Amino acid sequence: MEIRNLSMSFGIQELYNNVNLYIKEQEKTGIVGLNGSGKTTLFKIMLHMLEPDSGKIIFENNSRIEWLPQVIEDEVPNSNLTVYDFISLGRPIEELSTKLQRLYEDFANVKDPQQQNNIYNLIDKTQKKLEYWNYYSAESELLKIIDGMNIPTSLLNQKLLTLSGGQKSKVAFAKLLYSNPEIMLLDEPTNHLDDETKNFVTNYLKNYKGSVFVISHDTKFLNEIATQILYLDKRTKNFKLYEGNYDKFKKLSAIEEENLMNQAKIQDREEAKLKAIIDKYATSSGKRKRMAQDREKKLERLQKERINLLPKIKTVKVIMEMNREGNRVPLQVNNLKFQYSSDSPLLIDNLNFSLTNGEKFLIVGENGVGKSTLLKLIMGILRPLSGEIIVGNKTDIGYYAQEHELLDYNKNILDNFKDSQISEKILRNVLGRFLFFGDDVYKKVSILSPGEKSRVALAKLSLKKANFLILDEPTNHLDPETQMIIAETFREFKGTMLVVSHNPDFVDHLGIERMLILPKGEITYYDRDVVEYYKERNFSNDIKKSKRF
Questions:
Q1: pTM of the model
Q2: Is-contact 374 511, C-beta < 8 A?
Q3: Which domains can be identified in the chain, with CATH numbers?
Q4: 520 and 353 Cβ atoms separated by less than 8 Å
């Protein structure tokens, strides 16, 4: 891949300035940089989803590119297509086989030699395409990927529209691996993967013969697969390539930054000397005046070549307050039943539980058992088949949706807060705590990175001043430092919390008292080992079935 004279900006925010770079084929490239440096934007330019201001990215040999975005709802449609059929679409084998059969029939019915020759050439091309897709071993490869991704047999005949967010991620990833492109673009690919599946993906990518570009906060994953690191420098608006894995990049970049700091100190001392001479002799005459003028020229050159050190990285500051005390029992669920359609199984069956004021309550379980669905039932987004959900009359709910459904992607950040009933000055102060400064607030939500969308959603949540927080995987897309910051904030929160999360480090900080295990509806005291189990062994109850498939 070659990057030529690439420049990109959004309004007055410049991301890249005349970038030139060459990346060899079959490299595993980790892409890193500060928030807002343009990592996901680079992928969108590579995919022609965005046009740069100038320059271009050139791929050799018309390479096929496949993308796994952070937020995958658009990649897995809400349709009646089954999981198995959707993954199979990764290779157009059925389409090519049908075409080949039709060509053979046409060949048999045509007598004109020229037409026969034309059809024969099409047959030859179609057969070569089938060979490229490993026609005879494709099904075996598909089953190995399904097995390695721990997608159970019971899920394969399930319709896409019934899948949870975590299931969609696995299914989309499996389809991408099966499609066997020359170039893979992976944006935070390990977010929804348990350790066993992550190990499979890691080994698969290590042996993959094409090129891989990975954006990830998972440094362990980058260390395992990356052969080089591409650093997007927010300071210089340029890119720099480092050979080796993430740890090697950190060492090299730390040395470079230290050298820059030393050079900057030298420049500071030189600048102070020049200014002292200029101040001393600026109003003099003769040799002293000429000396001052000479130093002014040197100072001008020095300031043009000034080294700009990276600013201190700012962190989010989250404040969660309540307008009032809630009910003694803010939520009660009685005999709740739910299914998505009359021909699908009951997802939630006779569920009962209640929360007390100030309690922090966790929901865990395998992907697809109805965790997010339960939250949507409580929020009134979905309607139960039977049973009741009783919300206290003093219960003010703040909801954080896993896939940011509450944000209006067609509006800018500021306009997403029009219903907040506070002045723009106060609102800007709030957004500043979530690292949106100045003209950042005019960015359209649709162009934000998933991490930035998460911060917008958290900002909206903080302004609700609710006494009951419902949080659906709130740490997804956030860097580890921000995860711990919000964990401390939620720990100090005096209201009630209902949390879906499989992030043990985050959950440990919250002060969880009890947890609900779905689908069986069992309520137990908090146990980190159980959270670890569901994180690392998601789908574990069905793995044996999957291996027999």
A1: 0.63
A2: no
A3: 1-64+181-268 (3.40.50.300), 331-548 (3.40.50.300)
A4: no
